[in-house]
Amino acid sequence: MNTRVIIPTLCIVLAAHASRSVDTIESAITDSALRIHSRHRQLSQANTKDIHLSAPKASAQPAEPQIYFPAPESRGGWRKLDKPDDIRRIAGIDPAKLDELRDLLLKSDNRDFAAVVIRHGYIVFELERGNSSKTDTRRVASVSKAICATTLAIASELSRHGKTPRKMTFEDRAFDFIPWAQPLSDPRKAQITIRQLLNHTSGICPEATGAPNDGSWEYILGHTGDQRTAKLAFDPGTGCGYSTHAFAHAALVCETVTGRPYDEFAIQALFRPLGIERWWFQYYDGNEKIGRHPSHGLGLSARDLARIAYCMLQNGRWNNDQIIPQWFVHETAQPTHNVTTPEMRWKLNPQVFSHGWELPARHWPAGNRSGENIPPDARSKPGSGGQLIAFVPSLDLVVTRQTGSSGDWQYEEYLRRACNAVLQESVPTK
Fold first, then answer.
1. Which of 15, 81, 157, 370 has its CA at a distance of 20 to 30 angstroms from the CA of residue 38?
2. Mean pLDDT over each residue of the chain, to the nearest integer
3. CA-based torsion, 102, 105, 106, 112: positive or negative
């Protein structure tokens, strides 16, 4: 008998003994019969050696879409949206607001620069004036502080699993890992933790002292007689003084923990896994006892800065690997110290600082840098000359700018305008 006759008859019988309707039962049996016939034809036409997996069940849930990660620039790099309709529909960004952002950047200063905004893994805005966003690796100034802290977190995580010569946590005393600093120029330095190096509460040579940021390692470590580097500005953990010197110390900590110079470890553990292909590092020279070592200073392109921010946006993952420790990403969402007195040089809210990154929404409204209308989960790191790296998890947004210059700039306004370009209907509600 034909299947089309059997199925309706069988459904009437089953419906008489169950609460389900004839139409419901008929639909289910028909679907099953069609799948059986389809599978029978497949098996009849295939050799046994060609059969690896059975067909998925019709009731199986669709697979979760894979998160996008860009290939290295030499193999295509970031995906990009150029058409306004695509930017609005796919990325949920207002093209008119991007035009306003373009005007802001072009009029904000006369520096050469490259700027990038990424939403949902798509470049939706890319502006270059003199600098290439792909290949220009000019100095990124203090943006390198966030990268140094991130690299040190990777070293700490590896050390906890016995994959480095020394174990280290951010609560450990920093100078236990800086043998070149002995004897200490100030006995209070022995109490400084690695965490304090990274959140500007160590007391080491704050920029408010006016001391040069660069010099020999003897100068950085306080062995030249300059009291600004020899003596702490305050007891560790009791004040906030923005300190470039502290991050030079952090690079030496990384070298001792990993057994490799800071630059080599950063390249191997962070840059290469993210597909970063171009960089340079700053070195300081020392005497025969200290030698030559990389500091934390470096140069990267705007697109490659975006890779680091994008990895943070993905909770430290890249493809199938946990590159940046998830605990580090989570800790950067809050201040990593309890100091409340203003930062010494710019009188900033000290609660802005967190593990080398900053929390721009926490800037005091009365200050020169306002956090108004910036999402509270945003993390950024500005650098002198208008450099910026930022990511905003709640908006799935990455923002970068690279100039290679020095001087003040409207860091938060750039980030604020980029956030404001996100269409409200595309922001998920919590």
1. 15
2. 88
3. negative
Core vs surface per residue 108-118: b (16+ CB within 10 A) or e: ebebbbbbbbb
Q: If you search the block for the tokens 């370009």, which residue do you land on?
A: 421
85: tokens are 């309709």
Residue 407 lies in a domain: yes
C-alpha of 109 from chain center: 26
Name the residue with tokens 């975006």: 306
Residue 27 has pLDDT above 50, yes or no: no
Please give the pLDDT value at position 429: 67
| 312 confidence band (pLDDT: 50, 70, 90) | very high
**How many C-alpha atoms does 319 have within 13 Å on its Cβ side?**
8
For 162, the 3-state DSSP assignment is coil
**Res. 24: pLDDT tops 90:** no
Laid out side by side, the sheet with 113-119 consists of: 79-80, 122-129, 113-119, 397-402, 387-392, 379-383, 357-358, 353-354
CATH of the domain at 137: 3.40.710.10
The answer to whether position 221 is within a domain reads yes
Residue 290 lies in a domain: yes
Q: Is 73 domain-assigned?
A: no
Count of domains for the chain: 1
Range of the domain at 398: 129-426
Ramachandran class of 385: left when φ > 0, alpha when ψ lies in -120 to 50, beta otherwise? left
Mean pLDDT of the region 319-333: 97
Nearest CA to 209 among 184, 252, 245, 248?
Answer: 245
Q: How far apart are CA 251 and CA 260, in angstroms?
A: 11
Polymer length of the chain: 430
Band (329; pLDDT cuts 50, 70, 90)? very high
Distance CA 68, CA 80 (A): 12
